[in-house]
Amino acid sequence: MATILDQLHTDHINVVKLLELFERELEVLKRSDSEPNYFKWQNILLYMTTYQDVFHHPAEEKVFAYLCIDDPEVSQAVKEVESQHEILYQKSERLQGLLMDVETNTITIDKSDLHIACKDYIHQLQKHMSLEEAIIFPYAKKQLQKSDLDDLDKSINKINDPLFGLIKRAEFSELYQCICEQ
Ligand SMILES: [Fe+2]
Ligand SMILES: [Fe+2]
Which residues surround ligand 1, an ion (CB under 5 A)? Predict the structure, then answer.
């Protein structure tokens, strides 16, 4: 049976694919003759705010809290990613709102400013996942016994992944198709 560590790692693989799509979409923004699909971008952020921010990051924090960390490098990495979670919550909410305003023409924003905001979000998230994968997850994998993973499994409220899970949210079907085709 897949453990919470397997699930968190799978989430990272999925987010990497999603960010690859987002980066390719951003190329459209650079070409002044084409209008980006802001609805698709909004759905990328909707996924981040309704699954990754709600399930993935809190689940990681439960795992981190369970560890008895005796390695200063790991302890520093945990502190760093936990503070990044806060920043990422704010950034994803803000970017989602911004994209909604752009799509509904509530605001006009310079394309290069929008490009910078999206790139910054992608970059922060990539850096964040790399730190977790390089330092924290290998340590957790070594330290956590089966009984610990069972305890964590019981204490973490699992929710269905609405984009990559078996039951997909209707709004995400086009987005999922684009990820599969890339
Ligand atoms: Fe995280
Ligand atoms: Fe993560």
Answer: 57, 60
